[in-house]
Amino acid sequence: MPLSRRDWLRMSGLAAAGLSAPALLQAEGGSTVARGKATAKRCIYIFLCGGPSQLDMWDPKPEAPKEIRGPFASLPTNVPGIHFTELLPKTARHADKMAIVRSMHHGSSSHDTGIMYTLLGTGSLPNNRAYPPTRQDHPGVGAALQAVLGAPVELPAWVVAPRVFTTGSRFYKGQTGGFLGPAYDPFALTEPKKNSLGNKEFELKSMQQVEGVDAARFNTRKVLLNRLDAFTDAQLAAADIDDTTNYRDKAFSMLSSEGPKRAFDLKREPAKLRDRYGRNEYGQSFLLARRLVESGVRMVNVFWTFYGKDGCQFNLWDNHGIDGPVCGGYRKGVDMIKAPYCCPAFDLAYSALLEDLTQRGMLEDTLVVVVGEFGRTPKINKNAGRDHWPNCYSAVLAGGGVKGGQTHGRSDKHAAYVAANPVTPDDFAATIYHAFGLSPETPIHDQENRPIPISKGHPITAIF
């Protein structure tokens, strides 16, 4: 069945206590499994919502006809033989840290299916509906890692920023604990859906007590909830009570302790560094991700979509053409990728993240992933845009034991089809697990306690 209203409340706040800290936190634990050599301790997973163009970013084809290569020049990186486009000048200086997978592919040109497949990292589902999430779903990558490896004592194992990825009312699968249960859902920030650009200061309501709930009332409500637990203990399954109590107590601890809250406080960062990331929702989300993994969070998902000042949303990497909807004063098209909220902001934030992690000695064991649900058509359409294209696209991995300065797989002369070493979303997820020392056969257990492999893919071991 779809997630209940209670599940939604658990993802967004401790409603019963009049608080707004997420309650989906589990105490340190996890199953004991055989592990290989782990090269990553943490992961920052950046999802470019809408389908970024492989030709206009990571896999330029300067020798192709203009209607294929597009308007952007090929740009040499700091690795001989590897080129990006002119839209990524700062990122190009860090190609020596990156493995660019140019042979991603799957079989659906639907946003919904592509998003579900990518975020879940599996095409094996009880049904093919991309939304809403249910408790029969395979868990998202962050939840599977938590199930096997456990969670920090004070902080959540998995955080989503700046908010869960929705399109209208569509809340996509791959962003919950699925059949593992609500204790494995992410700690999801709830930033307002407006003004993605500008001098962004996160409101971080998820870390604040509700107005009017002072320390005394906070403690009183905690006592009342404990009494309610005692009252309902005889009526509900003990395991359910234990799970609810465990992650609720952890949320209370996060609200009442300054230690965990400091990890979310961007004001503790130097102004110059915040400027370097970009004073907008994207750059500050990347910086927050770095703070969180530095503090012990294992997995941070950052979803890159766009909200105008009026709350209008569109998935800005979805560059169909000039007749598309207007949002924030911009129209969709190939040129939209050079708008302030697209490649320029990404280039600034992503390069800053790689520099920051390197300078702190963290990149070596922090896996940084950049991917979308598919790519764009090789040929520019009649509306000066590119359409959905799952047959060949690019993804990028850096750090976490990945050997930089390389490409994996190869596209054909128009970046239309895979020419060598095809990689599916299953394989991509298996590669993330591999960095944590986990084979695809590593079991997690469903509601019937049946062992389910975390992945059916084949990790890209050649990039490590």
Brief sketch in words of this structure:
The protein has 464 residues and is α/β, with parallel strands linked by helices.
Instruction: Please name the CATH topology.
Output: Alkaline Phosphatase, subunit A
Overall strand count: 20
Low-confidence stretches: 12-30, 231-242
Structural class: alpha/beta
CATH C-level class is: Alpha Beta
The CATH superfamily appears as Alkaline Phosphatase, subunit A
Mean pLDDT score, rounded?
85
Q: Widest sheet: strand order?
A: 8-5-9-1-12-15-4-16
Largest sheet: 8 strands, mixed
The helical percent reads 25-40%
Key features?
about 475 residues; alpha/beta; eight-stranded mixed beta sheet; 20 strands; about 30% helix
Q: Can you characterise this structure?
A:
With 464 residues, the protein is α/β, with parallel strands linked by helices. α4 packs parallel to α12 (425-435) and α10 (281-295) runs parallel beside α11. The strands form 7 sheets. An 8-stranded mixed sheet has the order 8-5-9-1-12-15-4-16, with helices on both faces. It has a two-stranded antiparallel sheet with strand order 2-3. Strands 6-7 form a two-stranded antiparallel ribbon. It is globular and about 55 Å long. The chain has helices at 5-12, 66-69, 89-92, 111-120, 141-149, 215-232, 238-256, 258-263, 271-277, 281-295, 343-359, 425-435; strands spanning 42-48, 74-76, 83-85, 98-104, 158-161, 166-167, 170-171, 187-188, 299-304, 306-307, 313-314, 366-371, 375-376, 388-389, 393-398, 406-408, 410-411, 418-420, 443-445, 451-453. Helix content is 28%, strand content 15%. The protein is built from 12 helices and 20 strands. The protein has a single domain (5-463), classed as Alkaline Phosphatase, subunit A (3-Layer(aba) Sandwich), CATH 3.40.720.
